[in-house]
Amino acid sequence: MLPGLGCFLSSLLREDEGLPQGEDACAETLRQERPLEMSAKVRVPFLRQVVPISKKVARDPRFDDLSGEYNPEVFDKTYQFLNDIRAKEKELVKKQLKKHRSGQEHEKLQQLLQRMEQQEMAQQERKRQQELCLALKQERRAQAQQGHRPYFLKKSEQRQLVLAEKFKELKRSRKLDSFLSRKRRRNAGKDRRHLPLNKD
């Protein structure tokens, strides 16, 4: 079909039927995404008005309202099966580590195992903090039911409580001395860095 022929035919049909004709009749036949038909006799302007292409908007599910609100307790319950998978993977890495006694492969596996253990420790720490926060919430609720005004802890006070809980745990597992000696060494290294150098 020749360009503009559809528009012409529709205007002819409208003439026969006695319907309104002209630009309105022609515009109805044109679709929205169809390019404009320009006359060859009319000179094209220098700054031509081009139909804008609809830009695709990227959607990040982490910050989108459609994904819902993050709740750590619900998240942990939903993805509980991942812990079993991680435990199996850890056992697999340990077996591989026994096979490769030395070399580059051994070092890679050693680093992987260390990272897995660190992630596990971080997860346990997070779980402990969640349990502590839950206990504090329950305590506040109980105070509110008794008629007392609930006291909301500052973040610094929460950190102190978490640290106290960590010390109790270390004392129970008899790792407190090694933890404190490591912390002392780290602090001594930091202090040494801040000392001025002796220039004689």
TrEMBL record:
Return the similarity comment. Belongs to the RRP36 family.
Chain spans, region Disordered: 175-200
What Gene Ontology cellular component terms go with this record? 90S preribosome; nucleolus
Which positions are tagged coiled coil? 99-139
Top-down, what is the taxonomic lineage of the species of origin? Answer: Eukaryota, Metazoa, Chordata, Craniata, Vertebrata
Please note every region of biased composition (Basic residues). Answer: 181-200
Q: What is this protein called?
A: rRNA biogenesis protein RRP36
Q: Which organism is it from?
A: Molossus molossus (Pallas' mastiff bat)
Q: Chief location of this protein?
A: nucleus
Kindly indicate whether the keyword Zinc belongs to this entry.
no
